[in-house]
Write a structure and sequence with these properties.
- The structure is a single chain.
- The protein is of the alpha/beta class.
- It has 2 domains: about 5-170 and about 355-374, 3-Layer(aba) Sandwich (Rossmann fold), CATH 3.40.50; about 175-355, Rossmann fold (3-Layer(aba) Sandwich).
- About 45% of the residues lie in helices and about 15% in strands.
- The strands form 2 sheets. It has a 7-stranded parallel sheet, sandwiched between helices. Strands 10-9-8-11-12-13 form a 6-stranded parallel sheet, with helices on both faces.
- Helix 12 links the parallel strand 12 and strand 13.
- About 45% of the residues are buried.
Length: about 375
């Protein structure tokens, strides 16, 4: 490779649906210095929505169409090795367990450095994954963790030495939180009256995100004379059971299932309060984006969320899986406009200063160069 040629990085995911880690990669690709780094993206399975967006932006995305049934597939390492040699890849940067597994094995065989990114705390510990992660850590240049809690889990469960782990907090593209609409216009698009209290949450419809507790909290608020509407933004395997729960509680007119959306800035503009009721979490990009949109935040004390929100300075923190405190926190925002306005303003400033994409990408560039020079 000529001395002035950009370093070629292979960014590896299983697939690229709409999600926090996937949008994080999009931010990395958009902001990496093109004179220093050249990127190719590989999906072990299919590229999906965010992958399509990358292709439209001119970023090469390769699909292997493997791992269709989960489990293990030795063909993946062989195909990755072919790709590494064909494209003269200098470094592999993988994300989440299966991509970290196959990406690090392939990088080791190719004799190039590997970076592994972990985006979630270990809600469930599988002994074989812990063993594999411990072994592969010895062949990893750096493991990046999205929060202090994730770092602690990697050290505790995988027995990875602390110097190998770098905390790079999740970040957001601040422009995605903007909207040219007024609140009234944003609500008109949703068919929601301007005088209604409107909550919102963004995330996969999965057990992890704790939606069922938020639905129960709404039913509790109804009984206390507060009848908010709720935007549930996202899709997933829990959608049917959540809709059944909504019907059982008689909340069909108040809870709106919007599916996957790409207009979060406009949806944030329509909301009064953003709620993140997760049962476990790394560091929620959706929450950071809502903070950047100057929304008051109510979120559970899991993963990296308390690190961001502090002692209720930038949002109200409540215990996970506990309906009463969740409902009370929402009521505090509703009944104390000065409090809601203060935490919203402080939260937006906090995100701008500490969780911007530019700061995050600069850290990754340093890690790439350190790995290549080792």
């Amino acid at each position: 490779m000529p001395d002035n040629a950009p370093v070629k990085i292979l960014h590896l995911f299983v697939s690229l649906p709409v999600g926090g880690a996937e949008n994080l990669l999009l931010s990395i690709l958009n902001k990496l210095d093109p004179e220093r780094f050249s990127s190719i993206v590989c999906c072990i399975n299919k590229r999906m929505e965010v992958g399509d967006k990358m292709m439209a932006a001119g970023i090469p995305v390769i699909e292997l169409n493997l791992l269709n049934r989960g489990g293990t597939d030795p063909n993946i390492v062989r195909e990755l090795l072919k790709l590494i040699h064909k494209e003269s890849i200098d470094l592999v940067h993988s994300h989440m367990y299966h991509a970290n597994l196959y990406g690090r094995f392939a990088a080791r065989k190719a004799g190039i450095p590997a970076i592994a990114s972990i985006h979630n705390i270990y809600a469930r510990q599988k002994w074989h994954r812990r063993l594999v992660n411990w072994y592969l850590a010895r062949h990893t240049a750096t493991i990046t963790a999205g929060s202090e809690d994730i770092k602690r889990d990697v050290m505790h469960y995988d027995h990875v030495p602390e110097p190998l782990i770098e905390i790079i907090p999740n970040s957001v593209d601040l422009s995605r939180s903007d909207s040219a609409l007024t609140k009234k216009e944003a609500r008109e698009r949703l068919g929601i009256a301007d005088n209604l209290l409107l909550l919102g949450t963004v995330g996969r419809l999965a057990e992890q995100k704790g939606h069922r507790y938020l639905i129960d909290a709404l039913a509790l608020l109804n009984g206390r004379g507060i009848k908010p509407h709720l935007l549930l933004i996202g899709e997933g395997k829990e959608e049917t059971s959540l809709k059944e729960q909504v019907a059982e509680k008689g909340l069909q007119e108040q809870i709106h299932f919007l599916g996957t959306r790409n207009d979060l800035g406009d949806l944030f503009r329509a909301m009064d309060i953003f709620v993140m009721p997760s049962l476990w979490e790394g560091l929620s990009l959706a929450m950071l984006s809502a903070m950047a949109a100057k929304l008051p935040i109510v979120a559970t004390s899991v993963g990296g969320i308390p690190e961001v929100l502090g002692e209720n300075e930038y949002g109200i923190v409540v215990p996970p899986a506990d309906i009463e405190p969740l409902a009370e926190a929402i009521m505090r925002c509703v009944t104390n406009n000065d409090l809601a306005r203060e935490i919203a303003e402080k939260g937006a400033q906090h995100v701008r200063e500490h969780y911007s994409d530019a700061a995050m990408v600069a850290r990754f560039q340093e890690i790439y160069e350190k790995a290549l020079s080792a």
